[in-house]
C-alpha cells in the first residue's frame, strides 16, 4: 500500500476519528471539574459576602448603640452639672443670709447699750429666729438714741486696719503677701482675708 492508494487515506482518516473519539471524553472530564470548581467558588464567595454584610450590620448596630449610650451619659452629666450649680447657688444664698443675720445680730449687740425702751426683758435664754432679729433691728432703728456719752464709757469698735497696723504698713509699701506672712508670722490665707475685710470696710 502506497501513499497514492485510496486505502491509505481511508485508514488515516479512521485513525484520526479514533484519536478524536478518545480525546472527547478527556475534554469532558477536564471541563466538568472546572465547572464544579467555579460553582464552589461562587458559593464560597456568596457565603463570604453574606457574612461580611452580616458583620457590617452588626457593626452599624454596635456604633448606633455606642452613640446612644454616649448621648445618654452626656445628658446625665449635664443634668448633674445643672444640679451641682443649683446646689452651689443655694449654698451661696444660705451663706449670704447667715452673713446678713450675723451682721444684724452684731448691730443689735452694739446698739443695745444705747437703746432705752419701756419693755422689761426677762433673763432667760430663748431661741431667736431671723424674723425676731429683723423686728428687733427695725425697733432699734426707730428708737431715739439719746446722748449718754457723759455716762457711758463706750468705745468705737476697732477697724481691721487698727488691729493690724504693721500688716497694712507693709502692704502699702508694696511688700508681697508671702513677705508679709514671714515678717509678722501670719498665714497667707489669713492675710488675704484681712485685706478683703479691709476693702469691705472701706466701701
Automatic annotation (TrEMBL):
<keyword id="KW-1133">Transmembrane helix</keyword>
<keyword id="KW-0812">Transmembrane</keyword>
<feature type="coiled-coil region">
    <location>
        <begin position="38"/>
        <end position="69"/>
    </location>
</feature>
<keyword id="KW-0175">Coiled coil</keyword>
<keyword id="KW-0472">Membrane</keyword>
<feature type="transmembrane region" description="Helical">
    <location>
        <begin position="6"/>
        <end position="23"/>
    </location>
</feature>
<protein>
    <recommendedName>
        <fullName>DUF2802 domain-containing protein</fullName>
    </recommendedName>
</protein>
